[in-house]
Amino acid sequence: xxxxxxxxxxxxxxxxxxxxxxxxxxxxxxxxxxxxxxxxxxxxxxxxxxxxxxxxxxxxxxxxxxxxxxxxxxxxxxxxxxxxxxxxxxxxxxxxxxxxxxxxxxxxxxxxxxxxxxxxxxxxxxxxxxxxxxxxxxxxxxxxxxxxxxxxxxxxxxxxxxxxxxxxxxxxxxxxxxxxxxxxxxxxxxxxxxxxxxxxxxxxxxxxxxxxxxxxxxxxxxxxxxxxxxxxxxxxxxxxxx
Length: 242
Known about the structure:
- There is one protein chain.
- The protein is built from 13 helices and no strands.
- The longest helix has 25 residues, at about 135-160.
- It has about 240 residues and is mainly alpha-helical.
């Protein structure tokens, strides 16, 4: 008789559970993807090039940085380095989730990390904290849903973006900070949340004024990590931990 504690998860159910998980944040992120498509075409990209960038880079903020630099006669290595600076937070994301993915093979973790983006990371952390296992099928289900949707909204924005000559007037450019703020607020019940967020935010603002974009993103992230490491885990959390 099979031991129920070692039951193999239903891969199809896990995949579709992952595929359903992004729908709420996807509604908020879709206009940002369309905005990228419109701005890419406005900066000289063809529709196909805009879609290709979304399919291969798959990182909205980094793509925005890229299209701004492509038209400024900037050295290619500097463009790559700037995109890396914006995407540095994904190194931290993979480090956090990697400890929950030890049951996966190297190639499975590599594929899953390609699809790892801010809301997918947040949803993965919520799932893990609820006691559910991060399976490869669940990670790919959510990742593919985000990837395909991002490509589609980029295509729509590239095709029809010029019909909206001034997206800033509609407040569309404000969607991204609101979207990221909602992700941060989702973790507000974690220990040391307030000092970590304050340190990260203040460091990011200071870096934006004194160092410049896109470095403020990575500097703010590092400040938050260092603050969390310095404060350590609260004694109450250590007592309650299993």
